[in-house]
Write a structure and sequence with these properties.
single chain; 419 residues; alpha/beta; FAD/NAD(P)-binding domain; Immunoglobulin-like; five-stranded parallel beta sheet; 9 helices
């Protein structure tokens, strides 16, 4: 079957891209979603705090997703639910399988990758100890509790201070469980400051920074865990052990963009983000294939996913209409001091745009600082002041066209701490 645009993933990124493409005149669109309904991870995020940037009001995850699902009903976008994408070829053929239609190949003019991300598991971080029941990723526990209606445990220790883990600390407490501690191997939290305050501090849940779980004990079910302090090298310090009697361990130890399809298609990847390398219009190294949302880099706020994915949808619609950009006059964006990565990595200088939004994360906590943008000659083309920067919070800056036109060669984004 042929479509102008095939979007892989029906979460917030895919929904936003589809709506934006439809608004820009693309009338042959198909969303392929492996779950039973649209909405993605938002369906299990029943807490509020979504939509403050985009809708200017506070919504729960399902409410936020519902807004876009309702928008979609007013369009002619095809939706394939309970359908798994097996392969995406460089020729933009999307191979899918579903119980409704069996094996199909969808031929597309353009493809938007919006597959989201997945959680790191116990196997990925190699926690010592036995292998009893009661060890869950935080997102799995969230789905069990909020969608399936299962209480996963009564006495809980959380490893990692990512946002999902922090939110589950509050959720488990509200459901009657006792959250004994949140343990973080780094000397700073991996989540948003507001979640530290609202999910831990407000419920008197202790956060142990520079600590990690060094042993999980139990036969059929988790019975206790051993937590140790770690040094600057992240190795456990002997003699600092604490024992917690618990029946559940939740892991909130990082998210990984879901990019098996991207790699198999031969798309250029960024080792820093684990996502595709993209231009300012979200186009990957394969013309006509775009990436957005958590498949590109892990976001904090769904509002930013929505805005980024709308750019991808609009660019895909333009590509389907015959507008394509050549990779000739390209400005590269590099990461400098204390910056972990930048998205996008390239800018089409022949494209029409007023400004480019650059997203990045810092590698350490920085207090009063300047975000400095310099070109290849070391000439400063922009600077932005910040009172506080943290690895757990994604940053973004807007670079106007008039400044980018002055840049010689590539540009580098760096952090300079003010003393």
């Amino acid at each position: 079957m042929k479509y102008d645009l095939v979007i892989i993933g029906g979460g917030p990124a895919g929904l936003s891209a589809a709506n934006a493409a439809w608004e820009d005149g693309c009338r042959s669109i198909c969303i392929v979603e492996r779950d039973r309904e649209l909405g993605g991870i938002l369906n299990q995020c029943i807490h509020n705090g979504f939509g403050l940037h985009f809708f200017k009001e506070e919504l729960t995850g399902p409410e936020y997703a519902g807004r876009f699902v309702e928008m979609l009903k007013n369009t002619g976008v095809d939706v394939r639910l309970d359908a798994m994408v097996l392969d995406v070829t460089p020729e933009k053929e999307v191979h899918i399988v579903s119980s409704a239609s069996g094996y199909e190949v969808l031929e597309a003019k353009a493809v938007v990758l919006a597959m989201g991300c997945r959680e790191r598991t116990r196997g990925a971080i190699a926690i010592p100890g036995t292998r009893p029941a009661g060890v869950f990723t935080a997102g799995t526990a969230q789905r069990y509790l909020n969608i399936e209606g299962y209480m996963v445990g009564k006495r809980v220790v959380i490893l990692g201070s990512g946002d999902i883990g922090l939110i589950m600390a509050r959720r488990m407490t509200l459901e009657g469980a006792k959250v004994l501690a949140c343990v973080e191997v780094m000397p700073y939290s991996g989540g948003l400051t507001r979640n530290i305050v609202q999910c831990l501090n407000d419920f008197d849940i202790p956060l142990y920074l520079s600590h990690t779980i060094t042993d999980i004990q139990g036969n059929e079910r988790v019975e206790r865990v051993v937590v140790s302090e770690v040094g600057p090298d992240r190795r456990p310090i002997p003699g600092t052990e604490m024992v917690f009697d618990c029946d559940t361990v939740l892991l909130s130890v990082g998210l990984i963009p879901e990019n098996e399809l991207s790699r198999a298609a031969g798309i250029e990847m960024d080792a820093r983000t684990n996502g595709p390398v993209v231009f300012e219009n979200m186009e990957t190294s394969i013309p006509g294939v775009f990436a957005c949302g958590n498949v590109l880099h892990v976001h904090d706020l769904v509002d930013f996913v929505t805005a980024e994915s709308a750019r991808a949808g609009k660019a895909a619609a333009a590509y389907c209409a015959g507008v394509s950009l050549k990779n000739e006059n390209v400005l590269d964006i590099k990461n400098g001091n204390l910056v972990g990565y930048t998205v996008p990595q390239h800018i089409h200088m022949d494209a029409e745009f007023k400004a480019v939004d650059v997203f990045f994360r810092v590698r350490a906590i920085c207090h009063q600082s300047k975000i400095v943008v310099k070109d290849e000659n070391g000439t400063q083309i922009a600077a932005f002041s910040r009172e506080h920067l943290a690895p757990g919070e994604m940053e973004n800056i807007k670079l106007p066209r008039v400044l980018l036109d002055k840049a010689v060669g590539s540009i580098t984004v760096s952090i300079e701490e003010e003393k």
